[in-house]
Amino acid sequence: MITRCKQLIPILFIALIISCKQHKKAEIPISKSESWVKLFNGKDLNDWIVKIKGHPVGENYNNTFIAENGVLKVNYKSYKDTFNNAFGHIYYKKPFSNYRFRMKYRFTGKQLSDGAAWANRNSGIMIHCENPKNIGLEQNFPVSIEVQLLGGNGVDERSTANLCTPGTHVEMQGALQTEHCISSSSKTYHGEQWISVEIEVRKDSIIKHYINDELVLQYYKPQYGGKVDYNEDFWKAKEGQPVTGGYISLQSESHPVEFKDIEILEL
């Protein structure tokens, strides 16, 4: 009888291990397939709204933004080398609040001759933007959170996917950050190479910036506050309130830049 029990022990032990493994496997949640949606069809700008300083919303002054060969381009061929502070943005047609956004970008050619020195190889993705229909005629930038995109100048170190805050503030390491721009930990990317950028946005809780799949910056609690150049009393009254969502726009700041594979995954 004792011998028989000894023989049963290994069998019961093996059965117990198999049962535990099966139980653990059943507890692993099944991940949902990611359904990324293309925001740019590669053919036209029908789903986008243009607003350029000095011009009414909807007017694509000098064909600043064009769709060509599957790429959304910031195009200055009709500017005759004179930018005249015509800062522009192109907004996707609807707002978002909880999502992952990704695309590829690259800087090309040369900056317009009268563009600001800081705007050389400079563009951005503006998230949590105010409604483009409410932008003032002479307003430079929307109240928003900017994921600043910078290209290297061939010599100096110059991070990309930085943070700039037109009319907003954020928190980092438990403290309110009121400086206008904060650098990321990214590498410098010189030349005209395509760079992948992704942003994870969790309403008014946390925002993360990724470059080529590497996390380079994160911050918390986006809120209204700071300097604005339009409708000051309105935005002053909202100071300290959380920014929970808004439009997404891409910038034109005097240097040609291209965008492609523009997609979003709502969470």
CATH class: Mainly Beta
Helix amount, in percent? Answer: 10-25%
Our estimate of the beta-strand percent is 35-45%
Structural class: mainly beta
Helix and strand element order: HEEEEEEEEEEEEEEEHEE
Mean pLDDT across residues:
90
Q: Characterize the biggest β-sheet.
A: 10 strands, antiparallel
Distance linking N and C termini: 61 Å
Given as residue ranges, the uncertain stretches (5+ residues, pLDDT < 50) are: 1-31
DSSP helical segment count: 2
β-strand number: 17
CATH topology name, in short, is Jelly Rolls
| Radius of gyration computed on alpha carbons | 24 Å
Give the CATH architecture: Sandwich
CATH superfamily: Exo-inulinase, domain 1
Shape annotation:
globular
- For the record, the count of structural domains works out to 1
Write up what this structure looks like:
- Strand 14 and strand 15 form a beta hairpin.
- The chain has 2 helices and 17 strands.
- The strands form 2 sheets. Strands 1, 3, 4, 6, 10, 11, 13, 14, 15 and 17 form a 10-stranded antiparallel sheet that branches. A 7-stranded antiparallel sheet has the order 2-5-16-7-8-9-12, with no helix packed on it.
- It has one domain: Exo-inulinase, domain 1 (Jelly Rolls, Sandwich).
- The chain is globular, with a radius of gyration of 24 Å.
- It is mainly β and 267 residues long.
- The longest helix is centred in the first third of the chain and has 26 residues.
- This is DUF1080 domain-containing protein.
- It comes from Allotamlana fucoidanivorans.
- GO terms for molecular function: hydrolase activity.
